[in-house]
# Entry
Amino acid sequence: MNKFFRRGTVAQLALLAFATFGFASFAQAALIFDGYSSNTGTGFGNTYNILSLKNKNNETGAVVSLGTGETTTGDTTNQTQLQTLGDMMVSDASQFRLLFDASEPGGDSITIESLSVTFYASNGDEIITQNLVATALYPVPLTFTTTNAGNGPDDGIFRLDAAGVAAVQAAFALFPPVSDIRVGAAASLSSTWGGADSFAGGAGPSTLSSQVPEPATLALLGIGLLGAGASVRRRKQI
# Structure
């Protein structure tokens, strides 16, 4: 029982919050597409490659935590690995950005069929996963009719929506420090014909101070902090 937090504790806290305040407030928490891009990561701090996929016609793969290490599945390349929020210079959930770099011959089209990001504690425990969902502007599957040829220029940017920021930030509070939290990803792409198509993590502007958390989010955070305090007390008694 030397671990500071255990997965069961997080699950119990989350279930208690959901049972008390309802799941609806968290139902829309998600990863969303933030718009097309043609830059090389400028303005997003340090970017670190998380997931690279390479195959013809279709690509599917993931990088996930395996204890304090990692494992990959599917069509991943050797450029795939978990990255820490500290390396990305991400200090809160609203800053997190996922940058997509397609490598298609002649700037051909590509479609993202599905995409998710998962945050892991330093001990390997899964904290929370956010899946890509459609918005009023961008559907899922998401098709890029043209792409920036070659590796380097980003083709699109993903971020957490407001509910996602609140849910992820509340989860982060259970696993300090934020800088040690690792990020993995899973994706499925179609119409792939070129080189490795990649997703990299980076930091954008923080909007956390301007957001007002929903009551259920505040409740989850409060319950989490109470659980953290109880865990510390138990450790001191051992």
